[in-house]
Amino acid sequence: MADRPARKPRQVRQAQVLRTERLTPHMQRVVLGGEGLAALPAGEFTDHYVKLLFAPEGVTYPEPFDLEQIREQLPREQWPATRAYTVRAWDPKEPALTVDFVIHGDEGMAGPWALRAKPGDTVRFLGPGGAYAPAQDSAWHLLAGDESALPAIAAALEALPDGARAHAFIEVADEQEEQKIATAADVVWLHRADRPVGEALIEAVRTLDFPPGHPQVFVHGEAGFVRDLRRYLRIDRQIPRELLSVSGYWRLGHDDESWRASKRAWNAQVEAEQETTAVS
Ligand SMILES: Cc1cc2nc3c(=O)[nH]c(=O)nc-3n(C[C@H](O)[C@H](O)[C@H](O)COP(=O)(O)OP(=O)(O)OC[C@H]3O[C@@H](n4cnc5c(N)ncnc54)[C@H](O)[C@@H]3O)c2cc1C
């Protein structure tokens, strides 16, 4: 049997926290800088994301940090945990990479880290990845998401071509979580209050009077409402799948490890349910 091709080592970058800012009661901005950001290939997509690396409690790694070696030599539970975060803004001149973290309680690694982060702290990350940017020639744009997708939706709205038609729905806990976004687009802030996450978003998108033509779609956030909205857009609205950027960024009741472990099966089930019914 032929040897499997060796996996290309992924570049790990190290950055320092330059500054932090509490944008709203549940959103913490962390701006990263340092030489590790030199020549970061960001800017093409508005949903660029990095995968931050966090050492499990009590684990330290030998320097120089070598992810491949760690994965070869240490047991899995000692590998760094990864958390995906959107590049809210990227300024190659400073350089400065801005990331906005939802503060969702004491649980988890990334949210609590962001809350404690102070200038000079270091963090390592992989990436950036990314796949979506608003198209110049789309009939219109539909964007919907919860707080976790707010950074990507805001970046997309700020990058919309002049005169583009867009409907954006952003669900947040309450009025205090709203942010200013530099856009001429129609942005509707939905307040969750006591309702389950995503319920208000589903309702808002379902009652939208769709303009003519297919929209380019960006829907992200909690996996449950994302699946339901995908079903509506694919089956009821017959939007071609190539116009959809739709995925679960997190899943209620699961941490990121457990969500990622079930994601493939979840997505396969969504495909099986929705793609056999959708026409195009
Ligand atoms: C491509 C991509 C881009 C993303 N961009 C951002 C971003 O810019 N900002 C951002 O905040 N998140 C973003 N996320 C989501 C983020 O990666 C997850 O929310 C992640 O689970 C947070 O890690 P944690 O260590 O804080 O919590 P975990 O250890 O993963 O989870 C701990 C507990 O918190 C819950 N939880 C996790 N996230 C949330 C949430 N948002 N609201 C309420 N409860 C939650 C979990 O269900 C679990 O019960 C993105 C995800 C992807 C895939």
Report a brief summary of the structure:
By secondary structure, the chain is of the alpha/beta class. Helices cover 23% and strands 30% of the residues.
What does it look like?
The protein is of the alpha/beta class and 280 residues long. It folds into 2 domains: 12-129, Beta Barrel (Elongation Factor Tu (Ef-tu), domain 3); 140-279, 3-Layer(aba) Sandwich (Rossmann fold). Helix content is 23%, strand content 30%. It has helices spanning 67-73, 110-116, 150-158, 199-206, 223-236, 256-275, and strands spanning 12-24, 27-33, 49-54, 81-86, 89-91, 96-102, 122-129, 140-145, 166-172, 186-191, 215-222, 244-250. The strands form 2 sheets. The chain has a 7-stranded antiparallel β-sheet with strand order 4-3-7-1-2-6-5. Strands 10-9-8-11-12 form a 5-stranded parallel β-sheet, sandwiched between helices. Helix 5 packs parallel to helix 6. The protein is globular, with a radius of gyration of 19 Å. The mean pLDDT is 95. Flavin-adenine dinucleotide binds next to strand 4, strand 6, helix 2 and strand 12. Residues 49, 83-86, 100-102, 104, 107-111, 147-148, 151, 249-250, 252-256 line the site of flavin-adenine dinucleotide.
CATH homologous superfamily title of the largest domain? Nucleotide-binding domain of ferredoxin-NADP reductase (FNR) module
Number of strands: 12
Overall average pLDDT: 95
The structural class is alpha/beta
Radius of gyration: 19 Å
Distance between the termini: 40 Å
Question: Strand arrangement, largest sheet?
Answer: 4-3-7-1-2-6-5
What overall form do the CA principal axes indicate? globular
CATH A-level architecture of the largest domain: 3-Layer(aba) Sandwich
Number of domains: 2
Quote the CATH topology of the largest domain. Rossmann fold
Give the SSE string. Answer: EEEHEEEHEEHEEHEHEH
What characterizes the major β-sheet?
7 strands, antiparallel
The helical percent reads: 10-25%
Number of helices: 6
Strand content: 25-35%
